[in-house]
Amino acid sequence: MGAEAYRGFCLENIAAHYDVVLITSVEPTWERAFITDWEVADPTDQAALSAAGRALAGRHQLAGIMTWTEWYLVPVARLTRQLGLPATPPEVMQGCRNKATARSLFARHGVPSAASAQVRTIEEAAQAAGRIGYPVVLKPAAHAASVGVIRVNTPGELPSAYAIAAQTAGRGVESREVLVEEYLDGAEVSVECATYQGHTTVVAVTRKTVGMEPYFEELAHCVDAADLLLATVTPIAEAAIAALGITEGISHVEMRLVDGRLRLIEVNARLAGDLIGHLVHLATGVDLARAAADIASGHTPDLTPTRRQAAAIRFIYPAYSGTLTARRLTEQTGGLERVRFQRQAGDQLVLPQDGGDLFTARIGYLITTGPTAAVAKARAQEAYRNLDIQVAAAHTDPAGEDLAA
Question: Are residues 100 and 119 in contact, defined by beta-carbon separation less than 8 angstroms?
């Protein structure tokens, strides 16, 4: 359900223009409506991925290969090179996947970024935090979705925070180290870009609502085709992509506005998650999923805006860990594009402070549209108030509590 809820639009949009063959780690289910053939293989296992790719190439004339999954970027780039298809080189993708490498490239090319140090032990982390100055941010050098990313305000908080970041980093492939970074205190945005034959086009700006401190969970996003920040972010996004050496593909560039100046957080060399690509399509008419397929196939992507409105997404979380007992929308509201629940009644929702993580604790999301960002966000808030979400905590009555009130 998670893959369909968050990436189903990508496969559907691409299949409307291309015959799609799929390499997947499990037998396809909902994907079968959009694909003509498939191979089952672990995309993180290079040998298995290459064998699956050669099998599909033997049955079909492949025009290109792409992925929207962070952990598959390097293996897929290697497969693409093996089959002689257009793509950003795997060495570049390795740099994109390793945030320490990316930081050094940003510094070398003068892209405004955060002070950062790569560490291997809690002692090294303490020394780095002392040099940078509290508060600092700890993050795995090679992960995604803000998992294992945590703010540390004082030296006393460092040991427990380092344990969280190091545990996540230990599951990495490109790097298992932890970064200690300067905390950039300001509004967060992402910039959705398309690069074809070395030329980058900035398509949209995503305004983010981040919360659940000390973590950096993205609670909501909004894309406005008329966002005035578009011109300001463009040169920094272009410079960051060029510094990494990305020549082909879609990029999701994260920044923060600190004291009126933009500072780079990181570049993800793929379609953004959390349905941001769908928001961009709703707001501007530009289909980033199709653009990704076009670029992978060596075709010039159509990045011409055809709409001028706004779209917003709000994610649904429990106030505390417990058992989900009910989730429903009690009333339809204007501008509501969709409501999706990814958790069912009876599911356990465990927040990070109780040993879980924010993505698996997420109950679902809702999407709204409007002529402006203010209207789209107001409609999202109205729809959120019309949710009946109940969670029974271990210490409460099983009837639970209405968390959307």
Answer: no
Q: Is 339 left (phi over 0), alpha (psi -120 to 50) or beta?
A: beta
Residue 271 C-alpha from the chain's centroid: 8
Q: In the chain, what is the straight-line distance between the N-terminal and C-terminal CA atoms, in Å?
A: 26
Give the model confidence (pLDDT) of 265-290 as tens digits.
Answer: 999 999 999 999 999 999 999 999 99
**How many other C-beta atoms lie within 10 A of the C-beta of residue 398?**
10
Contacts 24+ apart (CB under 8 A), 120-127: 120/177, 120/178, 122/158, 122/159, 122/162, 125/158, 125/162, 125/178, 125/180, 126/155, 126/158
Q: In the structure encoding, which two tokens stand for residue 30, read together?
A: 């909902």
Task: Tell me the C-alpha distance between 332 and 327, whole Å.
Answer: 14
Structure confidence by residue, pLDDT tens digits, 45-101: 999 999 999 999 999 999 999 999 998 999 999 999 999 998 999 999 999 988 889
| Residue 344 burial by Cβ neighbours in a 10 Å radius (0-12, 13-18, 19+) | exposed
Distance CA 386, CA 185 (A): 33
* pLDDT score recorded for residue 171: 62
Contact (CB, 8 A) for 44 and 247: no
pTM for the predicted model, two decimal places? 0.90
Q: Name the residue type at position 397.
A: D
Q: Which residues, listed in sequence order, are joined to residue 139 by a DSSP beta bridge?
A: 179
Q: Are 114 and 265 in contact (CB under 8 A)?
A: yes
In this structure, what are the phi and psi dihedrals at residue 325, rounded to the nearest 5 degrees? -110, -20
For the record, the structure tokens of 124 come out as: 């090294």
